[in-house]
Task: structure prediction
Amino acid sequence: MTRNSPLSEVIAAQKRGESRGIASICSANPWVIEAMLQQARATGEPVLIESTCNQVNQFGGYTGWTPDQFMAYLRDLAPRQEFPFDHIIVGGDHLGPSPWQDEPAAIAMDKAKILIRDCVRAGYTKIHLDASMKCADDDPHRPLDTRISAARAAELAQVAEKAFSEHPPGGAPPYYVIGTEVPLPGGVQEQEEGLSVTSIGDVAGTIESTKEAFFARGLERAWERVIAVVVQPGVEYGDATLFEYDRARAADLARFIEGYDGLIYEAHSTDYQLAEALRQLVEDHFAILKVGPALTFSFREGVFALAAIEEELLAGRQDVEPSRVREVLDKTMLANPIYWQKYYQGDDQAVHLKRKYSFSDRSRYYWPVPEVQFSLSRLIQNLGEQPLPLTLLSQYLPVQYARIRGGEIANVPRAILLDKVRSVLSDYSYACGYLTGPA
Result:
């Protein structure tokens, strides 16, 4: 990735006063990635795919993939989607001690350094340095000092620079993103009385303290490749709560970044925002739009809708084994509650509904489990022998029903599921300037 890369072009366009952005697909879900490649082939937009420190790491993460394996998957998938692999920007999100914050800082940081090193060696070229979280031996009674988090971020950047220097000549140096959103990633857990927008003082402090920490380690050239700051523009989601973008509340923050020639904002948790709100975010310099759970949420909606159609079609039949995909998914979540238990509050019925339908979509962690994969494959097989009845599609998947009627997608489960994801991606294509109107 050179200075003529899509990321640098977004920055240049923003500084010219143009409304140009890029969607960051923060997901390792194969259906989501395939849908994004299809979308980019149709719109001509750049592809930025990021894995989080929990999805992909040196221990496999919840996907079971290391950075090398994730890159190998993308390298294999791209040509099958007739998309050039070298047109994909691969990034790492929240790379730092987060997965190991229950351990002392020195140990957590050592593991974070290995993760950063492995990502850069694998070919990741966009690195979000996030050392904002407290580790086990940090003072539990006060927020982590900005200077400490900045020093840790610079320490990680130094590891990334060393890993890149060991690459064969011709490789692209990493771009860096600094800062973090408030609240911490994953969605708010309860209704709030309004969401705070990052203050100008906080973002200025993040930029200046991180710059000082970089320079203290002799990373002046690396600082030139810091392209974005993560801030909270006032968008977030909870289990059933959405905080809509209010550009008036974020106006001062939006203007502030105009004073920095090489920097734009990266907005996390833009999931579920309306297309026009996403467009406004890009216009207001929040030009990198992170999205993840909204994509797997839409995929899950599609799976559940197909499961409802399967139940209708197979009712009373003894010759076909139903997939029971919804039941299998929930049983899998109950058997290993580590990814949702501390996030979903309430009585048994409330938690039961949240496991299935929460906007935070913690079920996304369970799609890679073999039993769930087998059940999903059976669903697709059971419904793939002949076109699905239009009447049932109209009942359970009305948008895809209309697109099938119009000849835009095939009447097969795979095409329907990919289109469910692309219906969300189209809002981002519009917001970033690659479609003339929302889907």
Observations:
- The chain has a mean pLDDT of 95.
- The beta strands are 22-26, 47-52, 88-95, 126-129, 175-179, 226-231, 236-237, 242-243, 264-267, 288-291.
- The chain has two domains: 6-291, 297-431.
- Residues 293-314 form the longest helix (22 residues).
